[in-house]
Amino acid sequence: MKLGPASKSYSLKAGKHDVELVAEGYDTYTTSIQVINTTSFNYKMKQTEFDVLISSNVKNAKITVDNSIINPSERKKMKAGKHTVKMVAKGYNDTTAVITVDKDHTAFQFDMVPEQTTFYVTAGVVNNPPKPSSSSYRSHTSDHSIDWPNGFVGGRYVYSKHFPIGFGMVLGESHFSFGLDFGINIDKKKIYPSDNEIVDPKFYANINPGFVYKFFSINCGIGAMIHDYEKTTVTTTTGESSSGNNGGYSSASSSVSVTETEQMSFKASFLLKPSIEGRIPICGGKRVITLNVGYLFIPKYKDLNGLTFGIGFQFGTD
To answer: Is 221 left (phi over 0), alpha (psi -120 to 50) or beta?
Structure first.
């Protein structure tokens, strides 16, 4: 039969009785007792639900516990054990953590992190009434201050002595990049590899594969320099002739010079352009300023060899 609150006294017949204790938020407790004269019994029930308070440093944060929205200013009844908490607020990184509710941990404070900054998101655990506790939950969001994008695209200006107007573009994915570089000889400066050769450089073009790792990249351009070419060859032929008069003979020599000119327009000569590039992140790594130093190497025309310098800009595509 149902007696009532456990805090009261009840009259029972002597003998054995089955007792069941039921309370909201506690496991049901069942036992048997033996009543002899005046007897008192004391049992400790296991609490299974607690009034839990979850709050954040961002007042307008949307808080869900196990996919159910809660009011951060009110306590919510929660069963003992693990629960998944998620917080979302405009201008802040989403915060997710797993908390463990028990009799010693019924209040949790979360510090949300503004976007494009890097810290550890922590949830300090406090007792009831609210009081800092030695226990804490930590959600690791990032181990460095820069969020490098997986993909990026960009361009750059490139300068060299014989090709002062140069430009390039690059596409990257993860640790690899692929680019195209061009340089133009706007001054029309010519070079003279020998006394009878004239080379008029026009422009160069190269493909530029590279390896990218955070703050730097290493590239090796392979391409061609396009130029006009002129070579003059002079050939001299010498001959002798003789004549006779009254038994006497005389001889004379003569020479003939032939000039040949070889001209070629838009001839291509192989080139290499290795370079190293420093990458300066801005906007949390979503934008990058690049500084590039390379060497233009044209084996056939060493007078055109020399350093190249570049400055550019890249932005993430993911």
So the answer is: beta
In angstroms, rounded to a whole number, what is the distance separating the alpha carbons of residues 128 and 97?
A: 20
Write down which residue in 76, 108, 139 finishes a domain.
Answer: 139
Query: Are 134 and 156 part of one and the same domain?
Result: no
User: Is pLDDT at 257 greater than 80 in this prediction?
Assistant: no
Structure tokens at 302: 């060493």
Q: Which two tokens stand for residue 19?
A: 């007792």
pLDDT in tens, 74-111: 888 888 889 999 999 888 998 899 999 888 888 888 88
Does residue 146 sit within a domain?
Answer: no
Reported as a single tens digit per residue, the pLDDT across 6-46 is 667 777 778 888 888 888 778 787 888 878 776 777 777 88
Q: Is the pLDDT of residue 249 over 50?
A: yes
Kindly state whether residue 181 falls inside one of the protein's structural domains. Answer: yes
Tokens at residue 181, please? 């570089």
